[in-house]
Write a structure and sequence with these properties.
By secondary structure, the chain is α+β, with helices and mostly antiparallel strands. It has helices at about 25-40, 45-50, 130-135; strands at about 5-10, 60-65, 75-85, 90-100, 100-110, 115, 120-125. The strands form 2 sheets. It has a 5-stranded antiparallel sheet with strand order 1-3-4-5-2, with helices on one face. It has a single domain, classed as Hotdog Thioesterase (Thiol Ester Dehydrase, Chain A). The chain starts with a strand and ends with a helix. It contains 3 helices and 7 strands; from the N terminus they run βααββββββα. It is elongated, with a radius of gyration of 16 Å.
């Protein structure tokens, strides 16, 4: 499966009074890394939305394991990989590295979704095979 990478420089505003990253920021970076992963595969989110008439890929579950803290001034690399495709969902993993050290692991389950016909909410839809093929080796 395709692995994408992006660097993040930790700014002062990302940190708490202990000078370490305030944990919700990791989830913000992971969300951006998911969009970056689709762009790296050749399907930026605006194109995905337009081409498949979807609202995007909302999250239905998430978790993280924090191994070592990161702090202001660190430059970290986030590696992102889709680990499994289901009918309408996919499991995605993010590995945040400080140099060679694994600092945080993030896990997400997302679905491909579109608006319901009656306009009241969203519903998951099957992920097209041509989308899945973009992420396979």
């Amino acid at each position: 499966m395709l692995i994408s990478r992006r660097d993040v420089e930790i700014s002062w505003g990302d940190c708490d009074p202990a000078d370490i990253v305030y944990f919700p920021n990791y989830f913000r970076w992971f969300d951006a890394s998911t969009a970056n992963h689709f762009a790296t595969a050749g399907l930026p989110k605006p194109e995905l939305v337009r081409r498949y008439n979807v609202v995007g890929f909302p999250m239905v579950d998430t978790s993280a394991k924090f191994h070592v803290p990161s702090k202001y001034g660190d430059v970290v690399t986030i590696e992102t990989e889709i680990m499994r495709f289901g009918r309408s969902s996919f499991d995605i993993e993010h590995r945040l590295l400080r140099g060679e050290t694994l600092a945080v692991e993030g896990f997400e389950k997302r679905v491909l979704a579109q608006k319901k016909e009656d306009g009241d909410g969203i519903r998951s839809i099957a992920i097209p095979q041509e989308v899945i093929a973009l992420f396979e080796d």
